[in-house]
Structures are given as C-alpha cells and as structure tokens.
Predict the 3D structure of the following.
Amino acid sequence: MSGNRTDFTAGYLSSAVAILLYGSNFVPLKKYDTGDGMFLQWVLCAAIWLVALVVNLILRCPKFWPFAMLGGCIWATGNIAVVPIIKTIGLGLGILIWGSFNTLTGWASSRFGWFGMDVEEVSNPMLNYFGAGLSVVRSAAITTFTFSLKGHTWWVLFGVWDLLGFFITLVICVQVINTAEDTCANSSWVDRLSAKYHRIVGCSLAVVSGILYGSTFVPIIYIKDHSKRNESVYAGASQFDLDYVFAHSSGIFLTSTVYFVAYCIAMRNRPNLYPEAILPGFLSGVLWAIATCCWFIANHSLSAVISFPIITAGPGLIAALWGIFIFKEIQGLRNYLLLLLAFCIILSGALCTAFSKI
C-alpha cells in the first residue's frame, strides 16, 4: 500500500510539473519573430533530442527499441495539418477539435485496450468516465475564452508549437500547385476550396491530427504490455516508461529533420532563418522535453488512462494565467469569469480522474 501511495504521489507531482511546463514553454518565444517557423521547429526538436540524450545517459542507456520511435513520428506527423486547419476553421475551433480527440484517443486507447494494448482497469470506472468527459468539456470552455492581444490572440502563443510544424504543408503546396510567383495566401490549395468544403476539410484534418496526438504513446505502451508475453519479440522489455524517452524523441527529431529538408527543397534552398530566436527556441524545447519526461513518469506511476485526461487539460489554463499576471493581456470581468469556469471544470475533471484510480 505504501508503494502504491508513493507511485501515486510521484505520478501526480509529475503531472503537475508537466502541466506547468507545457503551459509555459512558449513564453520565451513570445517577443521574437519566428518567421514561418520551420527552422525554429527544427531547433526545438534538436533541444528535445538533447534533453532525451542526457536522460538516456543518466538511465545508463537502456535498450533502444526502434518501434518506440514510431510515437515521435506520429506526433510530428500530426503537426503537419495545422496550417490548413487554421486557414479553414480557425485556431480556436481547431484546438477544440484536435484537443478533444487528443484527450479521448489517449484515454480510450488505454482504457479499452485499442491498438493491441492491454485494457487498463480502474477502481471506479464511472468516476473515470466522468473525469475524462469533463476534460473534453474543458476544451469548449477554454475555446470560448478568447481575448484581444493588441492585434494578436493568446492562442497564437499557446499554439506556436503547432504552427511551427505546419508551414511545411503550405509551402510544399505552393511550390507544387503554383506556377507563378504568387503569395501563399493566394495560391494555397486551401484557398481554392469552396466555402462548403472549408469546414469539412478543416474539421476532418483536426480530427485526424487529434487522433495522431493521442496515439503518440501507443507504441511504448504496446511494447510494455507485450514485454510480459514470452512469445513476443518485446519479451523482457522495460516497464519503466522513461526508458523509452530517447527513442521517442529520436523519432520526433528524425521526422522534423525530414520535414525541414523538404521545406528547404520547397524553398529552393532559401529557408527563412531567424538567428535571434535560436536560444529562446532552444529553451522552449528544453522545457517541452522536461514536461514530456514528467508525462512519461506519470504514465508509469498512474497509467495513461489517468494521466492523459489530467495533463491534456491543464496547460491552456497555465497559458491563460501567464496572460493575466505577466503579460496583462487578459482583462475584463467576462474573461475572468470564463477563466474561473474553465478552472473549475479542469479541477473537477482532474480530481474525478485521480480518485478513480484509488
């Protein structure tokens, strides 16, 4: 019992740190021009890989399972859809859709044993269902929480990571479709869609992107589950999630590098570089990587069926708090009340999910 309490404590503390860092990791980039973001994305992914390398050395280089790289590839691939999503349905609705499907996929895949994984049992299933449902509802509450930022939107900061990885799609489409030297806005395949198909395409891409985000840990959980079966090729694999963080991050860095090379080709070897954003971008990547390591620990201590609804629910609130207390970008009683409502929903969902394990 004492061991279980220790695991729960470590899991919930790791979840809290992950939420704090995920909600704060884009702050260093706020004052810098990132251009189309592709070079900065590569810097961020390089930082993620270096942090994972340090963690791997601290753990004395556990066995590298190439299949675990697939999770990083899935995450990076999910990122290449956001530019068309934003251009068709907007960032607010896009975050609502892909955030909800991210939470549902990550939670349900563990809870019901999808993709060949074992079913995760909880002590109180109904409480777990209710907590996961509230975590999805919180997306709708926070999505309505939009506010002016001197010509920008706080979602731009919170969605920077998504935006960085998605310009590759737009750039390639411009190079392939456009035969003249028009601007991206006028030549993108998205702009050629009729108003009717804008919403259909945008919502469909947001659903796919959210499912990919929610599937990022599936390969690792699959390896862990099959390590208990003597006939499996993964027999004897580690049960400690953090042992796979290096392989996962290698998948992210490899996929990001492929996209960056494709971007350079599409730009005819004239990529947009912003040197002043390199160090802030590196710091942002370090914070993201540490948050992800904490998520791995939470998965190990609590299981993904608990950690996913909790960790995916909180970062938006942290980002909003930065807007209130540091950047003074959230003002007005209506916005404060909406934020309070979102906080109550997030806290209720997290508590229900947490107590469902006890």
Q: What stands out?
A: Residues 143-188 have pLDDT under 50 and may be disordered. The longest strand covers residues 148-149. Residues 278-302 form the longest helix (25 residues).
